[in-house]
Design brief:
The chain is α+β, with helices and mostly antiparallel strands. Helix content is 20%, strand content 41%. It contains three helices and nine strands, in the order αααβββββββββ. The protein has helices at residues 5-16, 22-35, 43-51, and strands at residues 55-60, 67-73, 78-82, 89-106, 114-123, 128-131, 136-152, 165-167, 172-174. Strands 1, 2, 3, 4, 5, 6 and 7 form a seven-stranded antiparallel beta sheet that branches. The chain has a two-stranded antiparallel ribbon with strand order 8-9. The longest helix is centred in the N-terminal third of the chain and has 14 residues, at 22-35.
């Protein structure tokens, strides 16, 4: 009996899992890109594309703790700049288009920290985008509804060191 593309993804990531390295990120990115090419006839993917849930957990590894989620984003949905604390994340777009901006945190003597936007990347179906611990980014659905996968090294609901930012008159500052 052969497994689904989702089963194969989970097994391949499990088999390569270890300390965060360039190689691990490259392998997990390749596995996620392959999952994005899964046949739409697989029941789990057919259901996902039909139901378009705001958020659905697709896999949680009981040993290593990594998590794969699917999110459906409405066109125009913006998620403010944030980091993922000590975790890292790989986004992969299945349907639609997402713009992902990157930022640097700038601190000047006597001033509050603020973000400066470095640039943005249009992430299209089949593309993956990696953010390592401490990287700052936002997401904007530019063509939707968009369905994206979000692979995280750990459960972000339990990640207490994450920082989100808020717009203070055109300047992104840490949320209080």
């Amino acid at each position: 009996m052969t497994g689904t593309a989702l089963d194969l993804f989970a097994g391949r990531v499990r088999d390569t899992w270890g300390t965060l390295t360039s190689e691990l990120v490259a392998e997990c990115s390749a596995h996620l890109a392959e999952l994005l090419r899964a046949p739409r006839t697989e029941a789990w993917l057919t259901d996902l594309c039909h139901e378009r849930p705001e958020s659905r957990e697709l896999y949680r590894d009981p040993v290593h703790g990594f998590v794969l989620l699917a999110h459906t984003e409405a066109e125009g949905r913006h998620r403010v700049p944030h980091d993922h604390g000590e975790s890292w994340v790989i986004y992969g777009v299945l349907h639609g288009e997402m713009e992902m901006g990157t930022y640097a945190r700038v601190e000047q003597p006597g001033e509050a920290p603020r973000l400066v936007k470095r640039g943005s990347t249009l992430v299209r179906p089949g593309d993956v985008q990696v953010y390592l611990p401490g990287d700052l980014h936002d997401t904007l659905c530019v063509s939707g509804p968009a369905i994206q996968f979000r692979f995280t090294a750990r459960d972000l609901r339990r990640e207490t060191s994450m920082v989100r930012y808020t717009d203070a008159g055109g300047i992104w500052v840490p949320s209080v």
